Amino acid sequence: MTSRLCRPAALLALLAACGDDGNRDTAATGNQPSTAPTSLTEATTGPTTGDLPTGTTQTTDSGAASEASATGPGTTDAPGTTTDAPGTTTDVPGTTTGGDDCLPPDALILLDRTQSMHRTPDGQTPVDAPAYASSKWSLAIGAIESLTAAPQDDTVRFGLELWPRDPGGGACVTLAERIEQNKTATNPHCEAGEVVLPSALGNGAAIASTLDPTTTLLCNTTPTGAALITAGEHFAANKEPGREQYAILVTDGADWDLSCPDPSPLTAVQDLAEQGIKTFIVGFNGEEAQLGATAYLNDLACAGRTAKGFPGPCVPTADGFVAVDGANIPVYLQADDAVDLEAALQSVAGQLCCGCEKTCDAPEVLFALDRTLSMHRTPDGETPVDAPAYASSKWSQAIGAIEQVVGGGLDTDLRFGLELWPRDPGGGQCITLAERILDTKQATNPACQDAEILVPPALASGAAIADAVDPLTTLICTTTPTGTALETASTWLVDHAVPGRQQYVVLVTDGADWDLSCPDPSPLLVTQKLAAAGIRTYVVGFFGAEAQAGAVQFLNDVACAGQTAKDFDINCKQMGSGYQAQDPNSLVPLYLQAGNGELPQTLTTVADEILQFCIPG
């Protein structure tokens, strides 16, 4: 099966809605020797993904918390998405599983049938009568039918729950009645869901027969918590040894807290997680996202252990995971339209299927390359003497290494991009490598400028990246705005996020001078913000002499914040809005340290590790 595209957005807990619909319902209430690693688990960062054959157990590095304890990173994550605690190792996803290696998992789709689903994703009333194909209700049913169709229903035991339950007797309403007559359902408030089709192989046709956007009824109030409890009861009654179980909640996020705050959806998802059941959160909304549902759905995705970059955007509590404080970037599967919704659901199927090749949407990998003046030196801090090419300079080696990696065929599986920082404002203010080495000209660009993305992440971008930079002609600039560089990367990646597609930053820097020239914004805080958006940051310290000037501690903190540090669960601690190094005085690199001639292998290892968690389809 092939993977599709998707894209995240934002929410919290909605405002007024009539039985979830917008019309108020009055009844609702030190310089270490650097050797190029052969694997990143050996030399650094380890987000490894838990895409194990269904029914197997995942192991983590020593010190990682057990999934049952939910006391910190180290729990199993959503298969094929991100990883357990960074630094752990798992079976490589993307392999074909079948026979005795796996049992097709149970995947119960929990479809929100509340009245707000009559609208379009941007909150308008549909005008495309009589089918109203632009309504969220029609679009959701179409996407679910596509998800569960053969042959995918031979690899996953799909089931279907509608919530709230339709009590019959005309209490719920059709899509046309809701749109054309503004008719309101009169079903009892906050009823449980109903499992209309238990999980089974070959269920695609039955699901298609059960769901019809014109006749399947919409009901009043939004009992999300009760729906999740109904799912838990179904899973408990059908539990089999070795068979994994998943909930797939498809909702527009509207009105749960106004109409049916109890039982708590968050508690219900955390309880499912304690039973080993992960919950995928698909937020199919546009208007509602802007009205406050993001934080709420982010919490559910973290509690369900399927958030993008898990556990990056999540923090453990006594009851289970929740999103980091102030998280306002969707880390659930957020869909703004029909294409996004189908892609979000297909990305889930690509992770769960048994007896098939698990696939994913090719990840985005943005190289953020330090172009500051100190890059003219060699890795051991000397002035190059190998004119005219100065191949021994860090600048030449860095560009050559990136070109080697992106031009070696990996750009068919990874969406590589290139950012240079700081930005070259033009007008001859930055200088060439030769001008810097020979001291014939001084850079005069404004201090602490933002970065520039020369090549946005895309497939087959290797040639474009090679064309965009040349060590002899691409200019280097003054000051070291590391934090601003990471902010530029964050802005682009968040703005272009696609649901189900993982995103990474690879910061290549010599670590020099950031705290003296451009301490604000803090690189540590910006990297923590990236992690909160589900974006991991690999830190490559390409230097030697600068390590002795304090860069080790700084880059250790950034690697921990980026959740890619070596032995993350042992060497990093949570503080405030994210992670930093456990020992602030340690001179042992937790990031990827690359010395003379080592950068190509180091960057290749990063790319290979990212591909270990994702076989693009």
UniProtKB/TrEMBL annotation:
CDD domains attached here?
vWFA (cd00198)
SUPFAM superfamilies found in the cross-reference section? vWA-like (SSF53300)
Q: What Gene3D superfamilies has UniProt attached to this entry?
A: von Willebrand factor, type A domain (3.40.50.410)
Q: Where is the composition biased (Polar residues)?
A: 26-43
Tell me where in this chain the VWFA domain is found. 106-348, 364-603
> Region Disordered: which residues?
21-106
Biased composition, Low complexity: where in the chain? Answer: 44-61, 70-101
- Record-linked InterPro entries: Collagen-VI/PIF, VWF_A, vWFA_dom_sf
Which PANTHER family does the protein's record reference? VWFA DOMAIN-CONTAINING PROTEIN
The name of this protein is VWA domain-containing protein
Classification from the root reads:
Bacteria, Pseudomonadati, Myxococcota, Polyangia, Nannocystales
